[in-house]
Structures are given as C-alpha cells and as structure tokens.
Amino acid sequence: xxxxxxxxxxxxxxxxxxxxxxxxxxxxxxxxxxxxxxxxxxxxxxxxxxxxxxxxxxxxxxxxxxxxxxxxxxxxxxxxxxxxxxxxxxxxxxxxxxxxxxxxxxxxxxxxxxxxxxxxxxxxxxxxxxxxxxxxxxxxxxxxxxxxxxxxxxxxxxxxxxxxxxxxxxxxxxxxxxxxxxxxxxxxxxxxxxxxxxxxxxxxxxxxxxxxxxxxxxxxxx
Length: 222
Known about the structure:
Blueprint: E1 18-19, H1 22-30, E2 34-41, E3 44-51, E4 53-55, E5 58-64, H2 68-74, E6 78-91, E7 99-110, E8 112-113, H3 117-131, H4 144-148, E9 150-156, E10 160-165, E11 183-186, H5 206-212
Antiparallel strand pairs: 1-10, 2-3, 2-6, 4-5, 5-9, 6-7, 6-11, 7-10, 8-9
C-alpha cells in the first residue's frame, strides 16, 4: 500500500513518518508480544494490555470465555489497537526538538470469535509457536475442557497503518551554535539468559538456546 486504507488510518501528524507497506506492518506486529486495546462500553472508555499474535492478515487474542472484556469484544465492539516499540531517545539542541525513534502500528475494526474447536486449537498452536517455536509439540496440549473455557478472537488487518521514526535530531538553524551534546540514546529490549525452573531436569531445547543467543527459530514449521 502506498496510501492509507481508510481516512482514519491516514497519518496527519508528521505524515512523512507514515508507513502503509504491508510487509512493514507485519514486521512491527511480529516483533511484539503485547498490544493495547481501546474500546468503550456502558461503563466508559477502556484501554487494556493483551497478549497477541499475528497469523496471515489477522491479529489474534485469547482469554476466558467468562471474561466481560472478551464478551464485549466478541459482541462486536469497535476497537483501536496499538503496538509500539521504542528504539531510542533523540536529544536535540532545543528542548522542543527532542524526539524518540520508534516503530508503531494502529489497527481499527471489530473482533470475531473462532467458533469451531479445531480452528481454535490451531490458532492457539500458532500462539505457542510465536512464544517458542517447536514447543507446541512438547507441552501438553489443552484439554477439551480448557479449550471450551477459552475464547479466541481475531481482527483483520484491513484497516491498519504504521508510523516509524528513525535517525538523529532535527535542529533549527538558529540553535546550531548551542554548546550541548546532541544525538541518539539507543534503546532496545534485551533477551536475558533463560532461567530453568528449580525442578527442571531437561536440557534446554533449541528454541531456549536460540533465545539466549538473541535469535528466533522463525523458520521452524508448525
């Protein structure tokens, strides 16, 4: 895409940072685990963090089928979903020209529930694959009771857009002689060394060792 898919996804503030490319949107979504979902109901406006995963052209979430939140979303509530990654603090010569480097995405629309158990189980396997590729073949799968108590929702990426900022500070010409340090303070989420449970007697599998090295087994088949 070279233009916003809908008027409300058209980025008006610093439009040169807008990204409407589908591959870039996928990359931003795939690089995260948490999203924030905003919606309104009879009690007011809400914005809640949720674990998510992407498969194809949909974003997925899951939760208890007794949850008021999940019932509201499954009922067709309009939502706005935000995912963001901070990449750095940008220090300029002027206080008002300070900025941040980031990658962000917003999705609008309505969730739909996956009704059949086979489709629900397959979607949850994809979630496990995102967390730790290959682990869905090792851990005990969900029982029929557990699966029945879980609702899986998905929302299409039809109405979505991304915004990205990178690079250094943008100083005004009048400020160029101010004797202050300028540049970028890079920021990144670092993967720490895996910590086995006290009662774990199994050698670390490949996906754990790859985590420690900062790599994903992204090509591992489901």
